[in-house]
Amino acid sequence: MINIGIIGCGYWGPNIMRNFQAIKGCQVKMVADLIPENLTKIKKLYPQIITTQNYKDILRNPQIDAVAVITQAATHYSLIKESLLSGKHVFAEKPITLKSSEGEKLISLAKKRRKILMVGHVFEYNSLVRKIKEIIKKGELGKIYFIFSSRLSPGPIRSDVSVVWDFAFHDISIITYLLDKNPLRVSAKGHNSLKKSLEDFGFIDLEFPNHISSRISVAWLYPTKERGMIIVGSKKMLVYNDIDREKPLVLYNKGINWSAFKKSKKISFYDKGVSYPKVKQKEPLRVECQHFIDCLKKKKTPLTDGKRGVKIVKILEKIQKSLDSNGKLINV
Length: 332
Ligand SMILES: NC(=O)c1ccc[n+]([C@@H]2O[C@H](COP(=O)([O-])OP(=O)(O)OC[C@H]3O[C@@H](n4cnc5c(N)ncnc54)[C@H](O)[C@@H]3O)[C@@H](O)[C@H]2O)c1
Hints:
The structure is a single chain. It contains ten helices and 15 strands. It is α/β, with parallel strands linked by helices. The strands form two sheets. It has a nine-stranded mixed sheet with strand order 14-13-12-11-7-10-9-8-15. A six-stranded parallel sheet has the order 3-2-1-4-5-6, sandwiched between helices. The chain binds nicotinamide-adenine-dinucleotide (NAD).
């Protein structure tokens, strides 16, 4: 039995806890949070779990094999470091750290201590996103031209990181996962309508190799909830709507009719209808938590290990540089 200790049980922690609890061969033994009311809620749901306001109680407990760090991003570095130094494997929420240099230190530490370090990039465990990757890999879309991605909703507004570090994190994780590529250049503009120092909306452009472009729009001040992508290829186009439970993926067999163009020199589109790729959906968090447990049992490197975590932080650092210089094009 793998015993897990959770540090941080605010908004997201209970979801991580529910999923680890449901996995065979592991159990959440302890939960720490600074806020007593959060612990009372946990105790009501799971009376057998030991709760504490002092996370060090978890790190000191020799029965705990692994720690899940589900606290605000700014606290990740010190909590992950202390957990690894206490001999625990670590599952940490995204972003691994707010500085790539700190993330690199954690990678070395985990390696030195022979501990698993995994970062919760939940969309890389999402069946819909995995299906899109399969479709792209098979060449069904043809050459990818561009990807539009939106993550817009009325909050939740954070006070420790901007909407770019919070929301666009996911879009960058998904797009780099889908393309298996890192951007060459980035440029970004954003604004702080609510607070002086943190952007609450942002528009980010990423240039990838092979002339693939991507635009990400993120906002916390928005009337409706939008989570999705449009991927335009030379053969087909794909719409991914993460909110639509019925038809989350729509494949448009639509594009420029080049053979007609050769004859008439006029641009026209072919339109051979739409299809709805079938996907057996599983809760992404369950798949993610199960992967962590599998990696622990089989001593495997997680798909979203420290290196992958730092990769995304490095891209975000360049995006931040561009945001701070009003959209300057920055090499990654
Ligand atoms: N993957 C996703 O889709 C997703 C969604 C939401 C949040 N998250 C991530 O989860 C993390 C937490 O986000 P949240 O929305 O739950 O934040 P939150 O502010 O609601 O909760 C964080 C909790 O951590 C506790 N905490 C902080 N420092 C602590 C310490 N030293 N010891 C014990 N408890 C401590 C706080 O008391 C708080 O209750 C963030 O890294 C965020 O990016 C990921």
